[in-house]
Structures are given as C-alpha cells and as structure tokens.
C-alpha cells in the first residue's frame, strides 16, 4: 500500500490546493502546550475526548495571513504599486509552496525507500534514530526523551512501518504503546493526511484509563505533527462529542462508545481509515467485547492495516478472520524459557485464610507507609468497603480508591492523584489492571485471587515497568493455593511463598466490628462486600481454584465486622458462564450514566419491548434495595449490566437489611443514604433516586401497611389472627364447624359493634341539636340586650300587673347564687335561665325541651308542682329580696 496514492491523496489533490496547506505542525504544538485550553486534559473541567486541534489551527491560520499583510511593503495603504507588489508576493508564495511540496515529496520518497530496504531482523536497530522515521515523529520522540528501542519496539515497529498486520505479545511495561503509536503517526504522515481527509487511525483500548493514557503518549510524541486527535470514551454528551468527531484524524476510544458513534452520528465517515490498533487485544477480543468489536469492524474498510497488542495472548486473538487480518506477523518477545512477567519483578504469595485477609492487609500497609501500593480486589463493593473501613482506622498513608462505578471525572482525578503522590495506597478493581502506567509503584498486592493467570500477569505488571524494580504479593486462601500456583506455573510464572511474621500479625476484627456498629452505612457496605465476594467466587469458571464450599464464610463475615454471614440464595438453573460473560458484555456496552461502565457504551435495549415502571426501577442497578427486590420478583435475568458490582441479578439475599443495618447519613458521595419510610428505612445510592423518593406520593407506595394488634391481659401484643398449632386446631373439632362458629361469632361482634355505632351516632346528633338551640337562645338574649338592658323572661299569663315587676327590673343575670353581684359583664347573656318564683328545679331544666314534652310537663306541674307558700304578699324591697333568695335556693 505504501507508495500508492490513497483516496485521500487524490482528494487532497483537489481540495488541498484550493484551500492551501495549513501550517498545522505549529498548531499542534501551540495547542497542546497552551495552558488553560478548555479542550485540553490538564484542565480539570474538560474531558479529553473533546480535545480539538482544529479550532486553534484556524485561529493560527488567520493570524498568519494577517501578519503577511502587515509585513507587505506599503501596508496596503497606497493603491498604486500595491497591486503590483501583491502580485509579486503571491507569485513568491506560490513558488515557496511548490518548493516546499517538492521537498516534502522528496523526503517522503526517501522515507519509503528506506522503509523498503529496512531489515526488521537487523541487529543494528538499537535506537529510534536507526528507524526510518519522519522528522516530526523523531523530534517528538527526542523531546519526550525516548532514545533506545525496547525489545518489542525493535521487533515490531519495522514490520509495522512496512505495512504488515501485527499480532504482538510482550511483557507488561515493555513499551507496547510506542510500538503502535509510532506506526500510526508514520502511516498518516506518509499518506500526507490532513484534517480534510477525516479519520485515518483508530486506536481501541478496553478501559477509559488506558485510552486516556494512550492519548497522553500520543500527545507527547505527536507534538510536532499536524494531525488532529481525539479521545472517545463516553461520560460526556454524545451530541457534543459527535460534532467534533468529523474532523479528527486519530481517535483513541473504548469499543462501546465508538460503536455508538458509528451507529448514531450522522456524517461520521470511517471509509478512509488507514490503520486500526487494538491495545490489550485479548481483552478486547474476549467474549465481553466480542459483539461491540465485531459490529465496529463491520463499519471499517477492509484494506486497512491492523495491529493487535497485549501482554498476554489468548487463543481468541488468533481468531483473525473476525478482524480481517492479512498474513499477520506474530511478534512475541517472551523468551521461550523465561517468565511472562518482567525479570525485575519480585513475586511472592502468602497463604492467609479468608477471615484473616484484612488483618494481613492492614499489617502490610502499616509496615509499608513510605511506599506506593496498588491493592487489587475483585469487586467495586469490596473496594468501597476496604477503603471506607481503613480510612476510619487511619493507617497513616494516603488512601485512594478506584472502581468502574465512579464518575469519569472522579476516576481521572484519582488516577492523577495517585500518579503524583509520593506515598499512597490505591485500592482498586481490575479497572486499572491492564495497561495503566502509574509511575514507580513499589508494591502490587492482590488481596482477592485473580480469575486467571493472565489477570495475575496484568495486575503485577503495574509495577516493575520498563527498567524499574517492583514487588508483588498475592494473598491466597488455603483452598486456592494448589490450584492457582499450578495455573501460574503453566504460564511460566514463578512465585515464592512467604509467611507473615507472627509479631507483625494484628487483628482488626474488633475495630471493624465497632465501626460497623457505630456506622450502619459501613455495615451496609460490609454486607454488600460479602455478597459481592461470594458471588465472584461462585461465578469463577476455574473450579479447581475457586471452591466456595471450602471457604470459611462465617469467619469472613465476622472479620469484616458483621455479626453473621448474610444468607445468600443461589438461583437455580443459571448458566454461570453465560452470566459472567454477559456482565462483561454489558461492561463493554453499558451506559456510563447509570452503570459506571468501563467503556462508556450505551446499554443494549430490547427493541419494541414494553416495560413496566417496576421493571424500569429494577433495571437501575445498585440504586436501592427495592430495585434488587423487584428484580428478583420479576425473575429478570436478562438485565446483566455491570461486571463486578451487581450481585443482585444473580444472587438473592434473604435478609438484605434489618433495622440495625440502616443508617442516616452518607460518609461521602459514594456512601449510601437512608430515607425513613414509616417504621422501615430505605437505602438510597443515588441523588436522583433520592429526589424521586422524596415525593410524598411515591413514598406512600413504599410505606408499610399498618398491622392490627390485639393486647392480651398481660399487655402483650398479638396479631389479630394468630396462626394456631395444627394439632390444637384439629382438637377443636371439624374445620367446617369451626368456620361456621367463627363466622357466627364474628357476625355477632359485628352486630354489637353496629348497635354501638348507631347509638354513638344518635348521641352525636342530639348533642349537635342541643348546641344549635343554645346558640339560638344566646342570639336572642343578645338581641334583647341591644333593645334596652337585661330583662327577665316572663310568661305572658301574668300580664302587666305582675307583682314581681320590680324584681324583674333588677339586673338578675349579673347576680350569683349567693345574691351578691359578681364581676360578670352585664352585657353577657345569662348562662342559665332564672327560675320563676313558682317553679322548682325540674321545671327550669325542662324548659329547654321541645314544645310537646314541655306541654306534658306543664300538665304534671299542675298537679304535682311544689309551690312556695308565703304568709303575706311581698310588700317592700326586703320582702321581695327574701322571696328571691328563697326561690334561688
Ligand atoms: N524506548 C523506551 N525508552 C524508555 N522508556 C520507554 C520506552 N518505551 C516505553 N517506555 C516507558 O515504559 C513504560 C511502559 O510502557 P508501556 O505503557 O507502553 O508498556 P506496555 O507494554 O504497554 O505495558 P502494559 O502491557 O502494562 O500495557 C512507560 O512508562 C513508557 O514511558
């Protein structure tokens, strides 16, 4: 292919001349070095994948034109002579351009010739300057202080420059990144690629961290080139990203997100792609990424160059047909007899029973406070628990944690902090196991046994990189020892067994239990960690190594601060292998927003499928306990969306939470929050979910239904209907009879309750009526008050000649029963009607009754009424007062 004009060269022949060549070489440098550039990685606000070079390019181009104008003699002010000068300047510029193009063409021809003559097996190839590289690449390498070729670089770069497809395997930290980046830059340079030619190279990495790192190296060594480069890893607005994709020459991406763009971004053209690179190819090609990569490759042109690199090569990588590799060169720099791991790496293992793992880890950290340590655990939940618990115990070294569920910005920040810290301990999942190049890591500790020897090799490869030294320690449960050591031997990895010094052993179980007791949020994490670990062991394919039944799970639960092991029910009939792979598949294609996936791809959805809101709720993994509950209720095993975090789609936990388990506050953004719902509490992992559940209406749905209790004579509460012992039940007679008896007894109760209720209603009605009457009377009094002061209520039968006229004129309503004037306001209506001199108490009381009843009582009064007899008619005021006092008695 080299030497042949590419379609883009033809295109440039037309477009390039029309627009002129933009001096992008300067632009790349100026852009990459500009501080505070909103598209540049060192700016905290930015995402790398938005990195653009072309804005800056245009800006520079305009500046350049302006300068030319200014520099022109006459400055354009004088019209005469200016035109002539302009014409001559133009001619000079065209001439200079033609010369430059010719020079470039000569350079290219020389390069191509040198490449053709290059002997890939030549022993003379030692340094980068021995390779036929263009000046921008060579200058970029010099500026980055790369001089001597590593083994893999020496073997693979010449072949790649010759346009061969490559399958490369080399130890961790051996410099594979440069091995594929240099051919990428050279390929595009030799094809005289410009911004207008579109996408020329695609580099795929399995994790975001690795993609970012590759992009960084590209930025370093490509600083003298004029290509535009972008990072496509998800975690950002797809539309925003899509707008910038069209003009990128080199893209570094994760498979899922790239596929999403290929499917959804209109006008994103990959037809001209010259070179495809897969870093950590065995991981990308494994079952988890299989569908994404296959779909992606379908979009790409067949006549491209393909490079595949990894530290470990599995059989799947040799499934070359899928990638349309043409006569690939197999480059392996693992010496036959030597180990697959770097020679300057010391490897040890400790046999530590599962319940003592955290004690051993704590002891190790405490004795290595002046180091840079990476600790690998099998799941995000384990990572969170160990990080949170150790943080509370203050080990004396800066602790960091990294897992796939964290937001992209947080992941970047943690990576940056660990890379720059002098002493720090990073607790992580396998998200940083591959390819990530942290500088000077002293120790790699594998607390949970890796799933296979390849993962072991990648994990330990985070230390002893390039020519530096490093040490690695693997913790193995006694049940895992024989099986896993055998697996390592098969890969020619030799590890030495070591023992923990007795005096260095410390137990942190008590302290962990205290912390779990004090902070139910930690207890919650401990439970999740337990379940997650158990699940990971259950899912492991290699049953010769991972034996769940051999593990002391009770002891493990106690060692992480739990009172006992949460009961876990394994769903029957599940295909473990399928589930395991499915979760990986989802990692490769799961949406970042919800799942914190590794690749930033969208979650595949079943088309035209109607889903209930409960199903949607259940799909939101790790949001709260309810979602997992509904998931189990629905039995939905189609939704396997994240790799290491969600055991709930596979295992069901009988006792997820009890009242003690629940907490009221989150420790940090990743800690669960607790919302009170009546008697129970709901743990919320996301702010969105929390907001949703704060709606009263929603909360009502989750409230417990009230239980009716009855109390016995001792004050002990019982449910209304208690289950009875079967024998006792039978001894009471046939069930039919009992039922009838029960029904009639209940019916009687209902009848009685009905009578009571009716009486109650009647009383209430009566009370209401009485109140209304009293109110009406009060109003009447008020009306009279308004007419001229207090007056007695007088029966009409006495007429005007009433002998008690004087008495009636007295302000009786203000007088109390003792005959003395009270302080009561005379304006107030009397509370009680004053008895008439011939009435007794019962008459007065009855006076409020209805007309019918009143009449009847009057009839009785005619016969049985008690009349106060007096010796004489009252003559003066004293007599009247005496009479009044007597009547009032
Ligand atoms: N020729 C070289 N001279 C000096 N340092 C180099 C050279 N090539 C690579 N390195 C350095 O070696 C380290 C490891 O390189 P790189 O990350 O490419 O390794 P790798 O083989 O991809 O590792 P892994 O398999 O873990 O992904 C990096 O820090 C890189 O800067």
TrEMBL record:
Instruction: Output the Gene Ontology terms for molecular function.
Output: ATP binding; hydrolase activity; RNA binding; RNA helicase activity
Q: Where is this region: Disordered?
A: 17-46, 65-106, 581-627, 753-889
PROSITE patterns noted in UniProt: DEAD_ATP_HELICASE, HELICASE_ATP_BIND_1, HELICASE_CTER
Enumerate the subcellular locations listed in this protein's record, separating them with semicolons. Answer: Nucleus, Nucleolus
Name its GO BP terms in alphabetical order.
rRNA processing
- Compositionally biased, Acidic residues: which spans? 793-803
Q: What class of enzyme is it?
A: hydrolase
The record's listing under Pfam families reads: CTE_SPB4, DEAD, Helicase_C
SMART domains this protein is in? DEXDc, DUF4217, HELICc
> Quick check: keyword Nucleotide-binding in the entry?
yes
What InterPro entries does the entry give?
A: DEAD/DEAH_box_helicase_dom, Helicase_ATP-bd, Helicase_C-like, P-loop_NTPase, RNA-helicase_DEAD-box_CS, SPB4-like_CTE
Q: What task does this protein carry out?
A: RNA helicase.
Comment, domains: The Q motif is unique to and characteristic of the DEAD box family of RNA helicases and controls ATP binding and hydrolysis.
What protein name does the entry list? ATP-dependent RNA helicase
Q: What is the source species?
A: Bombardia bombarda
